[in-house]
Amino acid sequence: MVDNCIFLSQKVRIMPNASQRKIIDDLIARARFIHNFAIQRFNDVIEKTGEILNSDNLRNYYLTHRNEYEFLKGTFSTLENQVFKDIQKKIKINIYTLKKKKLNFKSINNGGQSFYLSLKEFDIKEFPYKKHHYLQFDTLPSPIKIQNKMRFPTGIPLSVVIKKEYDKYYAGITFKLKREDYINSLTYKVEDTNKAIGIDLGAKQYITTSCGLNIECDRPLSKLLKREAFLNRSLNRKVHPLCKGDTTPKSKNYIKYSKKLGKLHKKIHNIRQDNLNKISTFLVKNFGAICMEDLELQDLVKKRSFAKLSQDLSFSELRHKIQYKGNFLGRTVIIADRFFPSSKRCIKCGHINNELKITDRIYRCEKCGFEIDRDFNAACNLFKYMKNITGWGTSKLTVDEINKLKADCEKYKIIHNFQPSVSNIKIPKTISEPSVQLDFTA
Ligand SMILES: [Zn+2]
Question: Which of 103, 163, 375, 411 could, after both became Cys, cross-link 114 (CB 3.0–4.6 A)?
Answer without folding.
Answer: 163
